[in-house]
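A brief tutorial aside. Many learners find it easier to grasp structure tokens once they have seen a single protein encoded end to end. The record that follows does exactly this for ABC transporter substrate-binding protein. Read the sequence first, then the structure, and try to relate runs of similar tokens to stretches of the chain.
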Amino acid sequence: MMSPHKISLAALAWVLAACLTSAPATAQEAASAEQVRIGYVDLEDSPRYDPFLANFLVPQRPWGRSMAGALLGIADGQQIGQVIGVEFGLREAHGSTVDELAATVGEWAQDGVHFIIADLPSEQLLALSEALRDQPVILLNVSAQQDELRGANCRVNIVHVIPSYRMQTDAIVQYLVSKRWTNILALQGPLAQDAAIIQALRESVGFFGADIVEVRPFVLSADPRRRDQNNVALVTEGTNYDVVFVADSDGEFARSVPYQTNPPRPVVGSAGLVAEAWHWAWERQGAPQVNARFEAANNRRMHRFDWAAWAAVRAVTQSVLRSQSTEFEPVRDYLLGERMNLDGSKGNPMSVRAWDHQMRQGMLLAAGNVVVGLAPIEGFLHQTNDLDTLGVDAPRTACQF
């Protein structure tokens, strides 16, 4: 347990400033420092990290494993740790099965590693959560965006750092309503994730006062017999609309939609204007420094999964600092509590929603190499926190911990 000294706001500001100038810890100081280890797990052969698809410039595909973001967060945490006498570090495991990962994390928990960054698809994330339900462990979800994980299939031992599909569609629909582009033609891909995105869109338009003119299926195919579903001009003709929303979790079809619609209209969703947790072109709130440090260390740009892993580590290190403890329960309670005030370098301070453990945050609206805006859009207000206009609010949640 850290010594129970009090940290005022002025002292906290001094701590953060000192991180920029403090000298490296001596060997004796490092030996006496308390240790906080954060875990990182993913699947060895995850198809999401197929380098061919990433190199093919599909925007939805990550450009490298999110562990790079976690390592950047650890580097930040080590500077703070020098001042408060805590040494932050990372343990990693790349497993072939959930059982293998669960066994590893169980061993880590016995060794005091309680906060685990989980870069896993939704099915494996839920399985790992179930396997660890009796362990003193919090899983920090940095890549599974399905709303059901924050709803009927929520779990008390998961914190969602990555935004949900509903947060993405809320951000986009807020922007469309602000522009009075309220008649939406939706194109839906064949995957379950695509259907989940369309469901989120339906809820968003119902809440903010837009309208889905029609939902039309598309397929990624060169088969001329399926031209009515694989040709963008044919898929988008024959009705009136203000904008085309594409639900394509793979991103391969979506990238061909802008400038190909009939009639020509703006494209949003999985291409054109996209709602992102992070974007390399964001130029405010310290984002250029975050991006520059990440690119220098990894020789690539920061993806949304990288940002989520970086933010997850920052959430843990801040919780250690503010709770004045390295023990699991005080750190967990601060992380999940109302006092959390996390800087994610994109606007309003972030914190964890009590009703579904989603981290509330702003969403970047980006098109190509520019960030067009930051949601919540001005004018969309909430009675307690405007960030709660993005995602499912407490009165409508299906989550029951």
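Self-check: The longest helix spans residues 304-323. If you spotted this yourself, you are ready for the next section.
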